[in-house]
Amino acid sequence: MTRKCSSEFRLQAAFRNGEKKSPLKGELRTELQTFMNTFRQWIQTEIHAVLSKNGPTVPFLLWLDPAREWQVLLQLASHESFELWEAEGHELLLRHRFAIEDRRPVVIWLPKRREELTFFKVFEAEASVREISLLQGLREYGVEITHAREDDLLPVLQSYARELIDEPLPGWKRITGAGSEIVTDQLILECLASWGKPFKQTIHADKWDIFLRRIVGDFGFPEPDPEKPDP
Predict the structure, then answer these.
(1) pTM for this predicted structure
(2) Using one digit for the tens of pLDDT, what is the confidence trace for 190-231?
(3) Which residues of 95-125 are buried (b: 16+ CB within 10 A; e: fewer)?
(4) Helices (H), the chain
């Protein structure tokens, strides 16, 4: 832990001092590049590592997502970066499309577990398969989510991942750092119950965007006016 904290301190100091604009050597340069990568860039890098492989067959990535946590994030990351197929329909339709179209590097998002594959299972052996929860993915990216914080974050993790997808790794401390406050279901319900009190008096300005995303996307309410109490 001491070594990790020391490394993070050196990276923060290097970034503040403008060292990212001058040549860095060895480990510090690699760490700084990783430190400043966004979650979008991490997703793209993970995917490009698979799709750029050389081999006897054209590589493709089968992204299994039974909890449907990654679909929107893959949509956001795919823009001008990689081709994404979203297999929402019957698996037989996916198999037919894959069989008749020219082979090319592609990411296939499928909301199933590996053991649930049926008609497309015939192509499973050719694929690179990725089946990982959003929580696991964020930890791989470098977000420090403690086990004590999991229960609070899991219900809102998708909303925050979309909100922070273009934030460098340090920006995630907004929800993981000591004393950080997240927009939980409970906070939203308390806000909705505060009749006669404008939303802006309950929701701090730096949490308004995520509050708006959650109340519209997760709760299905129309977009609220921060000056009025009713959604």
Answers:
(1) 0.70
(2) 677 666 677 666 666 656 666 776 777 667 777 776 666 554
(3) beebeeeeeebbbbbbbbeeeebeebeebee
(4) 2-16, 26-36, 39-51, 71-78, 91-100, 134-141, 147-153, 157-163, 173-176, 185-193, 208-217
